[in-house]
């Protein structure tokens, strides 16, 4: 049966290789079961329901990828996108989490349509390459700041804006230990380094009395998703803020998914000399369906996980690897008490390390051309300093377009960039008028 569905012999692999590869992929990305509920619960969403929704969305989206594309790629709620959901849309812009969930659902529907009409590939080609390279760097810095803040390593300060935290508190040392353990394991190429680092932090927290073990059985039925299932809010759906939020979800997820897919698939040896592969449309469709159903379940945008490369490195070559990963998440569903006891200080190292992974893209940016270096720098620096991924993208695009116009390099600007710049400038003008009227 497996041979017929996944073409194992054709891909020079075996059932054992695929299952082991899937388990390894699970080990490297299972931290999402801890981190995603911790991040999204800051909006007021039920943490137990988020654990179940995260697991179910991951299982469903990964199975979509397995059976639609036969690729060893797992999908789950995206890091960076969940922080935008929680810290920008809800905690900064002031909207309810139902508004953000509605934006994710709309994004999923739009992605399905864009994929069907082959528009997603066209969008990728029309936007400036330098901004595509700067966005993950900015998100990496933003995620790192979130991790440092949640651990108490960095705190707010009226005099200097930011300051070092209080190192006499236990949660700072819980996070630092986890960061050290994770760093050492990554340096030694140990699979599951991020998860082990989180568990080490939690264990240290138990010793310090900051983390309390679950009472009774560690195995239980998953918490109900009823508090967040299909909780959409359509009241503000036709506002400009909704347009900006949906666009940001679309934009970030688009390049995150495409970049991850190309990276993982090329590692498996499936891409051609131009970096393309025949399953790209099916893979993007699986991503779009995952996001749509994930929103219905109650979680943030689904994306392909770069941690899938660990499974590929272990020999995974087909969708059976993804099925194996999904199966491990099914088992994890019944271990909710273990996952829910882990505090934000224990997951902070994961955020910091993921920030590092995303920051490495800075090497791709051309800093010799000021019309590209400045927009890239504005994009990546505005994200952590304004505590908003959206603002980084907005000002990055505006600065790119204006610098190119005033230096006479009109050929570098696409119609899409002109349109977006015009919309963003109109928004800034309207905001300014509103401020002056006050």
Automatic annotation (TrEMBL):
Pfam families per the UniProt record, alphabetical: Xan_ur_permease
UniProt superkingdom: Bacteria
Any one annotated GO CC term: plasma membrane
Keywords carried by this UniProt record: Cell membrane, Membrane, Transmembrane, Transmembrane helix, Transport
InterPro entries tied to this protein: Azg-like (IPR045018), Azg-like_bact_archaea (IPR026033), NCS2 (IPR006043)
Compartment(s) of residence: Cell membrane
Primary location recorded for the protein, binned into one broad class: membrane
Listed transmembrane segments: 20-37, 49-69, 76-93, 99-119, 131-151, 171-188, 242-264, 284-306, 318-336, 348-367, 373-403, 415-436
UniProt keyword Transmembrane helix, yes or no: yes
Topology in membrane: Multi-pass membrane protein
GO molecular function, one term: purine nucleobase transmembrane transporter activity
Family label: Belongs to the nucleobase:cation symporter-2 (NCS2) (TC 2.A.40) family. Azg-like subfamily.
The name this protein goes by in its record: NCS2 family permease
Protein's organism: Dysgonomonas capnocytophagoides
């Amino acid at each position: 049966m497996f041979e017929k569905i996944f073409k194992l012999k054709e891909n020079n692999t075996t059932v054992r290789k695929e299952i082991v590869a899937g388990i390894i992929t699970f080990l490297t990305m299972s931290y999402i079961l801890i981190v995603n509920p911790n991040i999204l619960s800051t909006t007021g969403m039920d943490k137990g329901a988020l654990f179940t929704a995260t697991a179910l969305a991951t299982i469903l989206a990964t199975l979509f990828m397995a059976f639609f594309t036969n690729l060893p790629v797992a999908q789950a709620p995206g890091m960076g996108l969940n922080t935008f959901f929680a810290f920008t849309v809800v905690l900064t812009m002031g909207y309810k989490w139902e508004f953000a969930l509605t934006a994710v659902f709309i994004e999923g529907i739009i992605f399905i349509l864009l994929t069907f009409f082959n528009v997603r590939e066209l969008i990728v080609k029309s936007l400036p390459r330098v901004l595509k390279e700067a966005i993950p760097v900015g998100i990496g810095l933003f995620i790192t700041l979130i991790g440092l803040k949640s651990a108490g390593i960095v705190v707010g300060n009226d005099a200097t804006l930011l300051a070092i935290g209080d190192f006499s508190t236990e949660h700072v040392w819980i996070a630092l230990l986890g960061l050290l353990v994770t760093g050492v394991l990554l340096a030694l190429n140990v699979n599951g380094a991020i998860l082990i680092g989180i568990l080490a932090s939690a264990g240290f927290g138990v010793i310090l009395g900051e983390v309390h073990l679950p009472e009774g059985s560690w195995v239980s039925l998953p918490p109900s998703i009823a508090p967040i299932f299909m909780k959409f809010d359509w009241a503000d759906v036709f506002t400009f803020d909704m347009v900006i939020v949906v666009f940001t979800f679309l934009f970030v997820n688009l390049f995150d998914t495409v970049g991850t897919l190309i990276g993982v698939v090329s590692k498996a040896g499936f891409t051609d000399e131009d970096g393309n592969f025949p399953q790209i449309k099916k893979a993007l469709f699986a991503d779009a369906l995952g996001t749509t159903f994930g929103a219905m379940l109650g979680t943030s945008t689904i994306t392909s996980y770069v941690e899938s490369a660990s499974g590929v490195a272990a020999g995974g070559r087909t969708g059976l690897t993804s099925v194996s990963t999904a199966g491990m998440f099914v088992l994890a569903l019944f271990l909710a008490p273990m996952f829910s006891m882990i505090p934000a200080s224990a997951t902070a190292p994961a955020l910091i390390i993921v920030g590092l992974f995303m920051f490495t893209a800075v090497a791709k940016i051309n800093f010799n051309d000021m019309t590209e270096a400045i927009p890239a720098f504005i994009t990546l620096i505005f994200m952590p300093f304004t505590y908003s991924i959206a603002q980084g993208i907005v000002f990055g695009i505006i600065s790119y377009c204006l610098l190119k116009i005033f230096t006479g390099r009109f050929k570098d600007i696409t119609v899409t960039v002109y349109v977006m710049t015009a919309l963003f400038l109109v928004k800034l003008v309207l905001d300014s008028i509103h401020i002056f009227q006050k």
